[in-house]
């Protein structure tokens, strides 16, 4: 009798943590030429250091439509989303199925090498949050407290990809990005309750 050892490809796959309800991911939302042109256009944006409650993050931001006060509260500025972001917003709206006009806040973030963003949940009045990752991949992590443990999920957000956090993914889960090895930009669009 000959005993055979199972081949690696015959073994069942390890279970994967499912993405939270309301989380979606789209690779290659834009092509490399669109990414290059978009990043080049960022050089003229009014970036400033990210600050929250006296803490400065190792990243720079340029926000439009709404801004975050020192207290963390979001307030409307009346400043429109700039024209250079509108073609990208068209694609984000198509990906999410949400009306372009429902996105009333845009944030361009420049992450220097070594920068990341800690665990947080976007505050109201933000409802749905869609982001586009540019130049470098990042590990996009999600977690939710469930009794005495954490439910966790993560994805490698590739350059030119997009994600959506809506419903429970937006309201019940926190997200973070660990320190990056290379320069990365993200463009985040938020729908805001009127």
Automatic annotation (TrEMBL):
Segments forming domain Fe2OG dioxygenase: 102-193
Q: Does the keyword Protein transport apply?
A: no
| Gene3D superfamilies for this protein | Alpha-ketoglutarate-dependent dioxygenase AlkB-like
Ordered alphabetically, the record's keywords are: Dioxygenase, Oxidoreductase
- List GO BP terms, alphabetically: demethylation
Q: Where are the transmembrane segments?
A: none
GO molecular function annotations of the record:
demethylase activity; dioxygenase activity
Question: Keyword Oxidoreductase, does the record have it?
Answer: yes
Name the record gives this protein: Alpha-ketoglutarate-dependent dioxygenase AlkB
Lineage of the organism: Bacteria, Pseudomonadati, Pseudomonadota, Alphaproteobacteria, Caulobacterales
């Amino acid at each position: 009798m000959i005993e055979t050892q199972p081949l690696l490809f015959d073994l069942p796959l390890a279970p994967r943590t499912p993405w939270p309800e309301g989380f979606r991911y789209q690779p290659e939302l834009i092509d490399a030429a669109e990414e290059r042109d978009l990043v080049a256009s960022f050089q003229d944006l009014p970036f400033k250091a990210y600050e929250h409650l006296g803490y400065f993050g190792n990243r720079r931001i340029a926000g439009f439509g709404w801004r975050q006060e020192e207290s963390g509260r979001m307030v409307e500025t009346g400043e429109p989303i700039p024209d250079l972001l509108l073609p990208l917003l068209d694609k984000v709206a198509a990906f999410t199925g949400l009306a372009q006009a429902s996105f009333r806040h845009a944030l361009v973030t420049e992450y220097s090498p070594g920068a990341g963003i800690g665990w947080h949940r976007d505050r109201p009045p933000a409802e749905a949050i869609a982001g586009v990752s540019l130049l470098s991949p990042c590990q996009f992590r999600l977690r939710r407290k469930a009794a005495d443990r954490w439910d966790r999920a993560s994805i490698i957000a590739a350059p030119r990809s997009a994600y959506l956090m809506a419903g429970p993914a937006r309201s019940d889960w926190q997200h973070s990005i660990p320190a990056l090895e290379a320069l990365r930009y993200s463009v985040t669009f938020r729908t805001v309750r009127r």
